[in-house]
Specification:
19 helices, alpha/beta, three-stranded mixed β-sheet, single chain
């Protein structure tokens, strides 16, 4: 497990390298365009090599995009040279950020380009956590190497000074990105302790991306299990986050229709939604969570009921899997299962696989098998043809329970720009806290009557979605006062890792 959680698949390293190559290409291109004439810029972009001057394949593609139907570099007019060579990126519109796979709050706002060699070109920027990169989302949604390459080329990184989108393809970096990602596209085959095959592939966070494992892994797994087999694929966090995005984004990309939703719950989490005390990571749990308290459980089941209702919006049968802890009483477990079934779940099953292995989840598997034979009337929550704002509103009201939404002026401006640029028919990927149905992490249970604030709207055109940022959602986590690295160590003799779990 230590190797699995450190560097085993290498996907995040590849994504980080590809993401930051593109970020470097953006700033370097702006610098070179700011400091060179059209002729000098063109001569460096299309140099004479061994006495021959020619366009690369990606440069020929750019010529066609800008309406120049020529293949001989010596035949371009001065106007055509300028049109080809200059991207005229507006630095204030750059949306592509550098990434790192470390929680570092001091990278949330930085200044780049302060060295003298950058000749006065500096700007404010930021780092995101690596899994928030659009390239991670592309890895999870792509269906082939060709599809991945096309998606990488479509990534919009900024606008030019005329307000038109600038892509990775315009920068000429698509092929290099594909080379960096050529091995990451292959799912890693592993197994559980009991020998069940498992594909490990991709990991976009569900609160800041679409939160699902890869389409490729799902399709390979379906082929391997055959027509009567079952594939279990994860959607991160609750029905309001990962599951909603699974249906509205991933199912559209894959063309697959799910048979059953397995909704995972715990007594402890329901107690928190019922008004239990705050939980602090690393601190001992309060007695409310370790002793029987049927009232807290009953009060918290409102959240479970809402999660079931969200799943039912998509017309797929729901089975509740109640992960049982040793501190849960029989009465608490029975109460949750009873309320879940009364709330519309096809079944609700206590699960003891953590302590008993696969044998502890046999009843869950049987319930899933029965549910899969039920009528399935799967449907999407919204039509892609609706305006961006209306799609956001539908998610906010029907899934989160909001009264309405409120866009900041910056968010509305971005919506208008993306609509004008032809990106209005993409699905929506909300960046929102996973700790509440609302935008406020402290509001547990089922909040109602709130206005959902949208502070910004960004576009992942290569991945194929628009993502609004709700409230104060950050794309770079920070370290707490006592990070877990205090407990992690390596035995220099045995090379055994300690404290990673």
């Amino acid at each position: 497990m230590e190797e699995f959680n450190l560097h085993l698949t290498g996907d995040i390293h590849a994504i980080t390298a590809a993401n930051n190559l593109l970020a470097a290409a953006i700033d370097a291109r702006i610098l070179h365009e700011n400091t060179q004439s059209d002729k000098a810029l063109y001569n460096r972009l299309v140099p004479v090599v061994n006495g021959v001057r020619g366009f690369s394949a990606i440069q020929l593609a750019r010529l066609r995009r800008v309406g120049i139907n020529k293949t001989d570099p010596g035949t371009l007019t001065e106007e055509e040279v300028s049109r080809f060579a200059r991207l005229d990126i507006d630095p204030s519109t750059i949306t592509w950020q550098r990434v790192v796979d470390t929680n570092d709050r001091f990278l949330r706002k930085i200044t780049v380009g302060q060295a003298n060699t950058e000749k006065g070109f500096f700007r404010q920027a930021q780092f995101d956590i690596a899994v928030a990169s659009e390239i991670m989302a592309i890895l999870a949604l792509t269906t082939s190497l060709q599809d991945m390459k096309e998606r990488l080329g479509k990534m919009v990184v900024a606008n030019d000074k005329k307000g038109e989108p600038v892509t990775a393809e315009d920068l000429g970096v698509t092929g290099a990105l594909a080379v960096l990602m050529k091995d990451a596209i292959k799912p890693t085959l592993m197994q559980t302790l009991e020998g069940t095959p498992v594909f490990v592939h991709a990991g976009p966070f569900a609160n800041i991306a679409h939160g699902n494992s890869s389409v490729l892994a799902d399709k390979i797994a379906l082929k391997l299990v055959g027509e009567t087999g079952f594939v279990v694929t994860e959607a991160g966090f609750g029905a309001d986050i990962g599951m909603e995005k699974f249906f509205n984004i991933k199912c559209r990309a894959s063309g697959l229709v799910p048979s059953v939703v397995v909704l995972v719950a715990t007594v402890r989490a329901l107690k928190m939604h019922g008004g239990g005390p705050n939980v602090t990571a690393g601190a001992p749990l309060k007695k409310e969570y370790t002793e029987e308290n049927l009232q807290l459980v009953a009060d918290g089941c409102c959240n479970l009921q809402k999660q079931i209702q969200i799943a039912q919006l998509f017309g797929v049968p729901v089975v509740v899997a109640l992960n049982v802890f040793k501190t849960d009483s029989v009465a608490e477990v029975d109460l949750v299962c009873k309320i879940a079934k009364q709330s519309g779940a096809f079944d609700a099953v206590p699960c003891n696989h953590w302590s008993a292995g696969g044998g502890g989840a046999v009843k869950l598997a049987q319930a899933v098998e029965k549910a899969a034979r039920q009528k399935n009337s799967f449907k999407y929550l919204y039509s892609l043809e609706l305006p961006i704002v209306e799609k956001i509103r539908i998610i906010a009201q029907k899934v989160y329970g909001a009264q309405d939404i409120e866009l900041s002026p910056a968010a509305q401006s971005q919506v208008d720009r993306y609509t004008r640029q032809g990106f209005g028919n993409l699905p929506i990927c909300m960046a929102k806290t996973h700790l509440s149905l609302s935008h406020q992490p402290e509001r547990k249970g089922v909040p109602t009557g709130f206005i959902l604030p949208v502070s910004d709207v960004r576009a992942s055109i290569g991945a194929g979605f628009i993502y609004p940022l709700v409230g104060t959602m950050s794309t770079m986590p920070g370290l707490p006062t006592r990070p877990c690295f205090y407990d992690i160590d390596l035995d220099p003799i045995t090379e055994q890792v300690k404290g990673l779990f």
